[in-house]
Structures are given as structure tokens and as C-alpha cells.
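Field log, afternoon session.

UNIT: design team B
ACTIVITY: writing a sequence onto a fixed backbone
BACKBONE:
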């Protein structure tokens, strides 16, 4: 027997009339989606109540261990979740740092960047997990780079290709790509 509390009426797009949607972001208690066919944006009011029991919203929500600041360990308020880019931003209520998280397919949510605003200028406080943000660097290569003395992206941007190649055994061509990406991120 069908439970009336969870019964849903098929939602149709206001633009084209079809009912295939992709989740775009979640702001507060609103779940926003867009039509796959025409791109018209919608608010999915049908899943606002009891949203913790819906598998799609559980998959895209941030886990409990990300709710504390990386620096002062005070509670974070997640204020922007982008499902297209698989990222989330949150702000610490005590120290004002903005935390950016990225969702990896197999490893879940990881802290990517911590920023603070100082006179309208962003200053990066880069954590150890930041090397994974560079394309081509996984867990094994980030461990190799950390053994060579590169702890974060700013260290990678300031390091020498020849020294890193001799210490890690990674090709110079690959290291030059990583260093140029690191320089783009840090500037």
C-alpha cells in the first residue's frame, strides 16, 4: 500500500512540459533543479519536507564531519552547494574563514581551500589535501610530493622542476604542467 505522506505528483517543466530534472544547488531549505531538455530552472517544493529521507538529497548533502572549522573547530554553516561542480562552501561563525569542499567520486567530500577576506583581498590558507586539487595528482603522487618537501600548492608553485624530478622520479613534463596549474591557482 502506498504511503500518502511520500506520494508525489509528477512535476512537469513550465517551459517544455517534460519531467526530467537535474539538481543544481541547495540553498537553505530550497532545492533548485533545472530541466534537462530546455534548461528552465525550478524549485522542487515537493521534496522540502522530510528531505533527510530522500536518497538523492542524502547523496548530495555534506557529511557531518565537515561541519567544523579546520582552524578553530567551531561549527560551520554551509551556505552554497553546487551539484554541477560537486563543490560546497561554508563559513565559520567564529573566525570568518570560508571553507571550500569538493566531492570526489570515491573518497567523498574533502577540504580543498580555506580563504579569508582581508581588505577585499583573498588570502589562501592552503591545507595538506590541496595537492589533490591539481589535475593528475592523486593520493600516491601527493604522498610522493610530500616526501619531497612539497606540502601544499604554494610550495609546488615555488619549487624547481629539476629538484622534484630527481627526488620523486616523476617526469619533468608532468611536473611542469602541475607547477603551471599551481601558479594559476595561487595568483
Amino acid at each position: 500500500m502506498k504511503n500518502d505522506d511520500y506520494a508525489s505528483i509528477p512535476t512537469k517543466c513550465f517551459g517544455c512540459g517534460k519531467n526530467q530534472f537535474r539538481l543544481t544547488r541547495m540553498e537553505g531549505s530550497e532545492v533548485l533543479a533545472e530541466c534537462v531538455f530546455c534548461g528552465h530552472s525550478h524549485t522542487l517544493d515537493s521534496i522540502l519536507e522530510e528531505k533527510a529521507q530522500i536518497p538523492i538529497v542524502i547523496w548530495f548533502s555534506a557529511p557531518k564531519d565537515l561541519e567544523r572549522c579546520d582552524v578553530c573547530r567551531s561549527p560551520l554553516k554551509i551556505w552554497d552547494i553546487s551539484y554541477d561542480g560537486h563543490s560546497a562552501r561554508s563559513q565559520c561563525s567564529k573566525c570568518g574563514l570560508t571553507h571550500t569542499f569538493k566531492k570526489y567520486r570515491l573518497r567523498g567530500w574533502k577540504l580543498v581551500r580555506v580563504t579569508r577576506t582581508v581588505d577585499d583581498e583573498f588570502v589562501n590558507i592552503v591545507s595538506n589535501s590541496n595537492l589533490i586539487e591539481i589535475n593528475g595528482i592523486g593520493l600516491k603522487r601527493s604522498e610522493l610530493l610530500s616526501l619531497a618537501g612539497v606540502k601544499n600548492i604554494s610550495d609546488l608553485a615555488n619549487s624547481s622542476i629539476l629538484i622534484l624530478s630527481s627526488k620523486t622520479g616523476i617526469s619533468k613534463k608532468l611536473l611542469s604542467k602541475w607547477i603551471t596549474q599551481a601558479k594559476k591557482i595561487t595568483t
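LOG NOTE: Residues 1-8, 46-65, 118-129 have pLDDT under 50 and may be disordered.
NEXT ACTIVITY: expression trials, pending approval
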